[in-house]
Sequence to fold (372 residues):
Amino acid sequence: MADSRERVGELRAEAEAAIAAAPDAAALEELRVRYLGRRAELTQILRGIGELPAEQRGPVGAAANAAREALEELLARRRAALEGGELERRLAEDAVDVTLPGIPPVAVGHLHLLKQTRREIEDIFVGLGYRVMEGPEVEYDYYNFTALNHPPSHPARLTQDSFYVDPETLPDGILNEDGLPPGPKDVLFRTHTSPMQVRAMEAAAPPIFIVVPGTAYRRDTLDATHSPMFHQVEGLAVADGISLADLAGTLEEFARAMFGPERKTRLKPDFFPFTEPSVQVDVSCFACGGDGTLPDGSRDPLCKGTGWIEILGAGMVDPNVFGFVAERGYDPGRTQGFAFGMGIERIGMLKHGIPDLRIFFENDVRFLEQFA
Fold:
């Protein structure tokens, strides 16, 4: 019995030393097979317990089982330690610096020129104390035409013929131009961002200073200067004592901020249904400086020899428009304000010398990358 028990002790000590020194998981698996496998010496001793004399079975079996349990526990601990070390090693070797650019680096995108121009316009007017608002692109006839002093059959409607859609309902108390319940012609894609004039005044009493950028739609043929979809910025200022002089000063400040401090502006009489008086705003030509001729004495083709370029339309808000929001504090007999509207495409074309509006929508990378 003493020999069997001593041998179990020797095997246990030998296995413990080998397991503690195992360099990796593969070596550890070999040791498990060697000391605890089916053909291992310790396994054979356990299988031979029944052949020993009765007085030896208990002591030898207890020693062998204790050795097996101890080795199994030691193997598990060593395996966990080796796996943890292997994980740490792999994490260190496979570490990726996520702050470094990819290889090859992916080109960073940028805003489209129209978006850049829109934001530049917004920034200028925010600096002048205006608030940026947005409105629905699918609009009621009431806001798009009627409340902007475009009564039924007004000729100005023909110049802004648009795309009509089926309505769900009209605001309470509003009928179509025939005084009938809502019909398909009463809801349309807005033809300008001007409907937000009335919507903004419905929501707040004066004073009010807003600019409204957004997309508008008209039934135009796509050519160098027209598109059925375009972008516009509408402006509205209403306050006590506001005058046409305030409008002129505001737009001159805008022109200088957008096109350069040397620019000059002029106002010419014009007509818009929702302003009275109405003006066309011109800016001194970028190419000839306002002379109408180039340095070589030839006629400037950009301004057609006039020295001026039209940039937008504006005017004092017609009292009839205030009449639609009189209950909100806009007394048509006392309230004064001005409005203006400009095409974002036109401003971008003039500032950057772009000859054809269609270039904006062609997605030609050679064009877009010039404004990265």
Q: What stands out?
A: The radius of gyration is 42 Å. Residues 54-93 form the longest helix (40 residues). Residues 2-93 form one domain. The chain has two domains: 2-93, 113-371.
